[in-house]
Structures are given as C-alpha cells and as structure tokens.
Amino acid sequence: MKLKYRTTSPVKTKKMGEGLAKILLKMPKRKKAIVLALEGDLGGGKTTFLQGLAQGLGVREKILSPTFIILRRFKIPGQKSKNFYHIDCYRIKGPKDILDLNFREIIADPRNVVAIEWADKIKNIVPQNSAWIKFRFISKNIRKITISASRY
Length: 152
Ligand code: ADP
Ligand code: MG
What we know:
binds adenosine-5'-diphosphate, 152 residues, 32% strand, alpha/beta, seven-stranded mixed sheet
C-alpha cells in the first residue's frame, strides 16, 4: 500500500503526523512495537511530522531535532507504560550504534511506538513490517510525503 501526500506548510505536516497518531492509538493489540521508518531530504519535514505525531500521541514535551542525542524516550500519558521513542540516525556510523542502545528490546515491546529518522542508514535492522515514510523537499513550503506500509 502506498499513500502520497503533498503538504503546503509545516502546520499541515504536523497535522498529518497528528492524524497518524490517532490511527496508531486505535490499532489492535500487537506482538511488537509500532515502527515508523522515516527517510528523505534534509529539511524534508521528518522532525516536523514527528512533532505532530508526538502531540497526537499525547506527549507533552516538545520534540526537537536531536542534534547530538541519537535516542529519546517520551512517556505517553494515560496509556499504561506506553513509550514514544524518537531515534535520529543522521550522525551515526552504522546499525551498531543503534543496536548498542537496546534497539532490539525497544522494537520487541508492543507498548512502544518507535519513530526513526534517517532509517535508511540502518535498513537491515529495521523490522520488515515497519511503515516507511518518505519526505521530499519540493520548494520552500511544499513537501511530498509518501507512506508505504507493508504487512500491517
Ligand atoms: P528533517 O527532520 O526532515 O530534516 P525538519 O522537520 O527538521 O526536517 O525541517 C523542515 C523545515 O522545513 C522546517 O524548518 C519547517 O518549518 C520547514 N517547512 C516548510 N514547509 C514545510 C512543510 N510543508 N512541511 C514540513 N516542513 C516544512
Ligand atoms: Mg530531523
């Protein structure tokens, strides 16, 4: 399944993320974490999208571009022990840097929602059933966003 969107402002990209969060919260019980693999242009809107997603999940802290921090964990309030993980692979050398942060355990826990920016850098350790979301910079305020979900 492939869904293509074109957004015309950061606010609209955030709204898209927020909309996806609502869908994720309604999803039936799973065996593993929900993993969103984000890829595409620098400035394409990945972090902006995740700000909306986090807000939609109910996370109160603001999601920032984690310049030096590779992984951040946010509690999803109201949902017993649910966590939102924001991972940014921009600066990493390879999958080992992510595996060292207990990645396997994080993606194995069905209570987690895990969003990975620059996921193409760790393609071989991203679970098969992840949703891939691609961001393309078209012009100053226009972004093309493509969501491909496999076996959800
Ligand atoms: P990435 O994480 O992919 O590098 P960011 O979300 O950090 O991208 O940056 C996107 C930048 O582009 C932000 O400064 C944002 O305000 C701007 N922007 C302009 N138009 C859009 C749009 N339609 N969607 C998302 N961001 C946009
Ligand atoms: Mg970013």
